[in-house]
Amino acid sequence: MANINNPFGFRPVKMAGGAGAFPTETLKTTSAVTIYEGAPLVKKADGTITNASAASTALFGFAAHGVTAVTGTRQDIAFYPARLGDVFEAQVQTGSNVNLTEAVGRVAGISIPSTYAVLVIGATTSVLQTVGIHPNSTIDLSCPILRVVVSKSSYLGVP
Question: What is the pTM of this model?
Answer without folding.
Answer: 0.86
